[in-house]
Request: fold
Amino acid sequence: MTERKIQTIKITRVLNECDRVRTLYFKMKNGVVPKPGQFAMLWVPGVDEIPMSISFCDDIGNWAITVKVIGECTKALYDLKAGDYIGVRGPLGNHFTLPASSCKHVFLVGGGIGMAPLKFLSHELKRSNFHFKIIEGAKEDGELLFIDEISDITREDCEFFCCTDDGSYGQKGFTPEIFDNQIKNIDIEEYNDTIVYTCGPEKMMYELLKTCNKYGIEMQASLERIMRCGCGLCGLCAIDPMGLLVCKDGPIFDRELLNKMEDFGKNKRDFTGRKIPLK
Ligand SMILES: Cc1cc2nc3c(=O)[nH]c(=O)nc-3n(C[C@H](O)[C@H](O)[C@H](O)COP(=O)(O)OP(=O)(O)OC[C@H]3O[C@@H](n4cnc5c(N)ncnc54)[C@H](O)[C@@H]3O)c2cc1C
Ligand code: FES
Reply:
């Protein structure tokens, strides 16, 4: 499995996205083409190895990840320049499943850095001729990601809604509220032909799950947990009660599995594996 082997890769391009967020482009040597929702383990020599969603991929093995500064390793990634080297393992984990061709309503709902895998997914949906609506939220103006690219991709036959907690850009409010309003415009008979893809703060995704449960709408969510091995060996990313591993069984989980997770929207684990409440 070439995906499990670490490749030493040169950064080819660095793009500033917004405050403390940058996209790093690099070319993989194994020629594997990842699917939207998959992630890679990024190793910064002398610092750490951490999971990052793949935010872009073309047909000739150029990938990108989009990093937001949180702690030491994300800061080290953020500070890299074109020409620097990193280690990359991937693509890892499962991926978003594209909708059935009969699907009538497709929503992508994301918050903050959660837009990274959703942006990749939006390109795949566009390529497969799906019409979709993107709902993006952030705390404030300046934190919304990929605005120009998403505006461009949603220009024809798709829609783009933005919101901020403080109303400094787009609508004032939260993505689950906008989603709920959009769902109310759909005929009840079409709930079965509707799907929502989401990635972002877990509390936000938990609110979306409640709405999807209410209307019987299919949902796929990308989860984050602290990862060490990224390939099912250490158990650090296990979610109770079924012991599902976010790195191997996920990071994408459907509504049925999300409803069975007692920790979803409530608890995560720290670096020692101890359970702590989600903020
Ligand atoms: C599948 C997956 C995809 C991800 N995709 C992206 C992405 O596209 N872009 C991006 O910027 N980040 C992404 N992350 C989150 C990223 O991996 C963490 O922010 C990073 O590991 C933090 O490392 P650090 O050394 O900078 O911070 P640390 O000093 O290790 O941690 C800082 C704080 O962040 C918390 N934390 C650390 N790792 C995680 C984690 N994996 N999940 C939740 N909380 C964590 C810690 O508890 C601590 O409070 C993803 C995580 C997963 C699991
Ligand atoms: S990170 Fe080790 S099992 Fe998932």
Observations:
- The chain has two domains: 2-92, 105-277.
- The longest strand covers residues 7-18.
- The mean pLDDT is 95.
- The first helix runs from residue 72 to 78.
